[in-house]
Amino acid sequence: MLAACGGGGGSAGSSGGASASSVSVQASSTAASSIASSSTASSASGGLGLSNGFSAFYSDPNSQVRNWVAANPADSRTATINSAIAQQAFGKWFGEWSGDIATAVSGYASAAQSAGKIPLLIAYNIPSRDCGSYSAGGSSGGDAYKTWISAFAGGIGSKPAIVILEPDALMQLDCLPSDADRTARLALLNYAVDQFAAKAPNAWVYIDAGHSNWKSAADTATRLINAGVARVRGFALNVSNYRADTELQTHGAAVIAQLQLQGSAAKPYVIDSSRNGNGPNGSEWCDPAGRKVGATSKVLSLGSGMEMALWLKAPGEADGCAAGAGQFSPDLAYRLATGG
User: Which of 329, 195, 206 is nearest to 275 (CA)?
Assistant: First the structure.
């Protein structure tokens, strides 16, 4: 299974291509039209029953790490990997590998509901995903994506869920070859937002917004506004990356301030804390050495600022250097469990 490369080249600085201001101009009519036709903050009021300190998130019983632990009881690393990673709650990624997406999402969300837990779902199938890098792929085109994301939302239905919408898609607008392509991607993200609002009323949706060492807060806010952040719960930072909590909190607060300065409402955000226990190794994003798991999934301050720290990336599933992107590496998992 593929997984996000956590910002790719964006981790080391901005890419070339259109500026945020040109993207804003190109997409403004699409975004404004979608905003006008939607009820205010429709998917930001779903009933998940969360409160500060909540940690009962669902984790895939058939995850790669759990399967490895079960298959390798005599391995000297197994006990550490099991306690530090396999027994924790982390996200489930869905893309073209997921088969019938409505069935896959519905089955997973139903299993979580039966267990009395909240699933963490990552939608990762935007066309031209990851700019052709380690996690390249995605839907074959805009119409195929609309069908897929509509079925994804329908699979959730009335069940409670947390959804992270398309890691890297918004921050990697610059790699797309034309303004028309960038506008089309923003239109797809807006379409996705509206599908979740219409078909998954109890899902809290967070649009991925990169991390603190990628785009400026002002640029990030502009992109979020054009992607429809006004109509979802909030935004997500650090998905599949390593930036430290304190750095993310500073950046998140700056993004919120910029949202307000640019005429939008303040929005809460979640962070991916799965691999940021030791912070980053400079600008290296691809399975860097010396990293460690971070705080396990938990609600921190519901409704404001950094409201949740979540394990969105499964520690041990590679970025593409220690193993193929999304493939489980016991060596990598053990290093993350121990900080080695």
Answer: 329
